Fold:
Amino acid sequence: MKQETQERILKLGRELQGDVIRWRRALHRFPELGGQEFRTAALVEQQAKRLGLTVMTVGATGRIAILDTGRPGKTVLLRADMDALPVPEHPENLKGARSVISETCGCSHACGHDAHTAMLLGAMEILSQLREELSGRVVFCFESDEENGSGWPVQLPVLETLNIDRCFAIHVLSSLDSGIVNIADGPRMSGMVAVNAEFVGRGGHGSRPDLSVNPVFAAAAALGNLASAAANQVESGQILTLGITSIQGGQAFNVIPDRAKVLGSMRYFKKEVGEQALDMLKTVFDHTAAIHRCTVEYDPQTCVYLEPTVNDPETAALARRAIPRDWQGDCGLWYASETFSVCLSRWPGALAFLGIRNEEAGAGAEHHNERFDVDESVLWRGAVCHAAFAVEALQ
Structure:
């Protein structure tokens, strides 16, 4: 990218800082759960149509906007997620009163998706102003229901018709200092094996366990066996976390239940480890259940639910060239999972992290926490990163 082009993108980004913050606050004030982002989608569509972009509705609330220069060239995908979480928001962040607070009871943007949407809206503005200097197309994907993973199966068939050449996304990160951008090669976020299994026994009176088949003991024993198997069977040096979060079995102290449900997830960063983990889980659960005279029923959700988010080295290098060097910094792996991994499994692409940790602003609480907040002053940088990547990739 020519230096004058980068400088112009930076200038446009700085000028949009107030707009990006305003959009973020509007979205934060009225958060919407996955599949219910009607107000958010309406704002996206309004801004896209104002800029003369083609807008497609994907599912109920997903939106895809296309900037077509009318000149032949590559097609670049930029993506942001829009949904909020069923997390009640505390009136204060880590420092004090928030700049803006959710007005929807029991729901908040506790992962920064409001910031993601606002940053991509900013990139739409920047790239629209550069339209006459570009060739090819930019596809802006605003994904619905990222948290539950129901948005991407609907949007993916549409995106696959658009002949994408490269893709890019940004996730704000509360553990990274504010304003720092990290775009590293290789694995960045974990894959996920979802766990939803029921141990099935035979209920009865708590005083006579010999007359029943207790699935609670089977479930408890299976988790111990799974931990031992993971410690001894996964290749040394590979990461596999066991995030088992719930055993649900019975309601009364003197009633042995018929069923005990196990819920949770396992996270990993190498595809083969995820496949091994799923096979190991079912082997351990099935054999442990048999020892306890139980059986196991698996919900269809018990599967490799998401692959790891793995950056293509060439695309990551392209992104690093596109953005100012003095913004860039190092960052380790993030153990959360991301549906953008689906895009990265199909097209060369990269996921960037934008740091939002700022003690003075009270930002730095963990994602999905009631005190989570973002440092709004750096969100314009996210808009610049999206736009700069698109320009570099189109060239």
